[in-house]
Amino acid sequence: MDKRNTILRVLADGKFHSGEELAAMLDVSRASVWKHLNILKDLYSLNIHSVRGRGYRLGNPLDLLDAEQIKAQIHTLARPHISRLEVHDQINSTNSYLMGLALEGADSGVVCIAEQQTAGRGRRGRTWVSPFGCNIYLSILWRYSVGMADLSGISIAAGVAVARTLENLGVEGVGLKWPNDILLHDRKLAGLLLEVAGEQNGPSRVVLGVGLNTLLTPQDAEPIDQPWIDLSGSVGGESISRNTLSAMLVSELVTMMSCFETDRLSGIMEEWSRFDLHYNQEIIIRMNEQKQVVWIHKGIDDSGALLLQIGDEIKAYHGGEVSLRPVT
């Protein structure tokens, strides 16, 4: 562990640490400590307080990721499916990183988790807000023998896996908005970004990305253009460790991805219905920038398509065609 990383992990407790203490710990001068602190401040946009006579501390404590802690908590059934797990302090995008590794021939089951993304991405080209040491930024690479069309329901299965993880950890009130937004009290808690590539008849590869808010300050959340929530403000989510949450998410998602080629959505349709926030409700469907209509949400079919009731007729629509929001 380099000196800069050591300083960061000492300061993560949110308490004051003197320059003398940090210098002695690292066997460097106080000037060197000050230089490292300024680099950390600029590199990760950290709020580091300096008070004469007391030392340095972070504006907020950080629950930093630890690869060994995460690995130790991954479920034993999921471990054989993970080819490697990487934790990065900073990365442009966990999804982009794994898409690059896939092109280089990386094996199925590579997991990438980051403390911060400098170019995090959401659905439809949106930016995913990614402050350092907060939230979960996680991606998984998986390879399948089937073609891309056979993977159409994987976003549905992934959404259920994330919602199930949160519920199992004691978070109350988790729900899903088709196709794969995870909501809490009608505000966005997490989102998924799936990128699929390959041949029409197979093989194909999927990079599944998860962004989940664990702690967001109003300043960090300022660019977000929709109602949001984080775990720190939710019943049951206040004290969940990011390492525990990462391990449980990886366990559920890897298990789901390893079974999806044969199981598809069988076995989770009832679970999706239980988490579905808009079943049998009127919803506004946006089919392009100009056209909006109100139809009734009737669940999903066995491929994950959205079922909409239009008069007496029910039609199926896929994720690339529509987006929805409830009638308020």
Detailed description of the structure:
The protein is an alpha+beta fold and 328 residues long. The protein folds into three domains: 3-58, Winged helix-like DNA-binding domain superfamily/Winged helix DNA-binding domain (Arc Repressor Mutant, subunit A), CATH 1.10.10; 67-273, Bira Bifunctional Protein, Domain 2 (BirA Bifunctional Protein, domain 2, 2-Layer Sandwich), CATH 3.30.930.10; 278-326, SH3 type barrels. Helix content is 28%, strand content 26%. The protein contains eight helices and 14 strands. It has helices at residues 3-11, 19-26, 30-44, 67-73, 94-103, 154-168, 242-263, 269-275; strands spanning 48-51, 55-58, 84-88, 110-114, 136-144, 174-177, 181-184, 187-198, 204-212, 282-286, 292-300, 306-310, 313-317, 323-326. The strands form three sheets. It has a seven-stranded mixed β-sheet, sandwiched between helices. β11 (292-300) and β12 (306-310) form a beta hairpin. The longest helix has 22 residues, at 242-263. It is globular, with a radius of gyration of 22 Å. The model has no long low-confidence stretch (mean pLDDT 91).
